[in-house]
Amino acid sequence: xxxxxxxxxxxxxxxxxxxxxxxxSLKSWNITIVDQFDKHYYQPGFLFLPFDVYKExxxxxxxxxxxxxxxxxxxxxxxIIKPEINQVVLADGTILKYDLLIIATGSQIAPGEVEGxxxxxxxxxxxxxYTFEGSRNLRDKLRGWxxxxxxxxITEMPIKCPVAPLEFAFLADWYFHEKGIRxxxxxxxxxxxxxxxxxxxxxxKLGHLLEEKGINIVPDFAIAxxxxxxxxxxxxxxxxxxxDLLVTIPTNMGDDVIAKSGMGDDxxxxxxxxxxxxxxxxxxxxxxxxxxxVPASKAGSVAHxxxxxxxxxxxxxxxxxxxxxxxxxxxxxxxxxxxxxxxLIDFNYxxxxxxxxxxxxxxxxxxxxxxxxxxxxxxxxxxWVYWNMxxxxxxxPFITAQMQKAGKELEEEKLETV
Amino acid sequence: xxxxxxxxxxxxNEQGYLLDMNQWDKEIARGIALEEGIELTDRHFExxxxxxxxxxxxxxxxxxxxxxxxxxxxxEFYALFPEGxxxxxxxxxxxxxxxxxx
Lengths: 418, 102
What we know:
In chain A, 23% of the residues lie in helices and 26% in strands. Chain A is an alpha/beta fold. The longest helix of chain A has 19 residues, at 300-318. Chain B is 45% helix and 8% strand. At the A-B interface, helix 4 and strand 21 of A face helix 3 and helix 4 of B.
């Protein structure tokens, strides 16, 4: 028997376990998946929890409910990967040997990377919403908050779900309006980039939204430290933004085990071929989801499209066939804009988000890069799709792994060669 | 779109960033830097070469990580490329502007 080992049973790892357990010969392959935590979080829900749109129990399930019965699940922490000798050592000393390894260990926040971020105000007036704990604590804070300066802040790119901070700003505007205290809240959006929208088409089509919603942009802000005593954030070039409530997106990094194993870049993301998803350094190691260094968005939809490509490539690798360079960076994301509306964006490595209809050209019913209510229902309905289709390894009808150009208003090809 | 930098035609986007980092050389860099009001020294080129190498290896860039690189500290990075050093240095290095997905 040969061994296929999957590290991490989040969105990407769970999808791979479901795909491969159906498509590989289990007479000659054992599939094992390792994850130390018993709960599988629906991470898009962390955006809604602070605003009491979702309850706590809406955002998690038991991990084992979504893993197939014919896959071995090991609920233990991982100590180190030894790719030169095809072994993974678990925290209790157990050694797992593999013939094929899939790394799906995701990314996590690293607030310790910025001076003072995890200081005396952490979870008092400084919050993240990228963890269950942070999102829940922020909800409790918002329930009693009477208003003041709310600063929504991005430390540095890349981050998981790059639109989430913007969605948070839009939902906050709506939430405070509904509570009747919008006039007592100033919302600031502080970013290291040169604006909230950084792609030319999105920037020209959507720039007006921020002004309409009274959200103040502070661009080009590279944070040096959080000053807990005076409640302000300070940039490297000595700019300051004062806050009563700081909602920050800390540096995002790959798992510590990647660093310990010497397999990552500066941010512990694993160097990976951006079209085949094979690791750059070890031919029997493949990487999927947030754990890779590929220049795609770190998002569940990306992991879903990658899972379809990677499943094919794993089967091809086993048969000794050349890998297909089929992953094009495709991402498909809803963007909540508040007041019961949302946008949809669909893009890849070379095509920026543009207006159009989705998934059917000329029909929709979803609108690309434009607000409407159908998109919002799509976002809320997506939770059902996540648990009942994506995690179980089913494709969504009419939505392909590769981005489709039909239905998009593309002016001309603008390719960046890098 | 096409632009002429250092008397050579190159492909750039709306914000003047090269579309193909292989069209870059020192003369192009000097030409773009002039538009940004910067006269390039050897020290600038050490930083630009580092940024290009990181871009080629697929590493995402940020000011904090440039500062930890050992090539240049953050204070000097700001001194070399004042006001928004990463986006300016990226443009002069012929690599894409640091951006989000939207």
